[in-house]
Amino acid sequence: MNLVMLDIDGTLTQSYEYDQEIFGLAIGDVLGGPPVDANLNGYINKTSTGVTEEAIRRITGINPTGNKSKR
After folding, report:
1. What is the pLDDT along the chain (71 residues), one digit of tens a residue?
2. pTM for the structure as a whole
3. Distance CA 46, CA 27 (A)
């Protein structure tokens, strides 16, 4: 098993720009869509989880949390 850690909000490492780029590519790849914009300024919840959930909603139209979406 391979494990990749992405720290897009800079809490663990100072590799912010690289992590954002790779995060956007990874989310798009996993969801079968284009790379997502991982610039945190474009998201409501600026954490890795928040950006991931919002990216899933944007690409698939499905709310991954099961709660009603504020689209």
Report:
1. 887 776 666 677 677 677 788 888 988 898 888 888 877 788 898 887 888 898 888 888 888 887 665 55
2. 0.62
3. 16
Looking up tokens 């914009």 gives 37
Pull the structure tokens for residue 47: 């954490």
| HSE-CB of 37 using CA atoms within 13 angstroms | 6
In DSSP notation, 1-30 reads -------TTSSS-S-HHHHHHHHHHHHHHH
Q: Can you tell me which residue has the tokens 């989310």?
A: 27
The whole-angstrom separation of Cα 64 and Cα 70 is 13
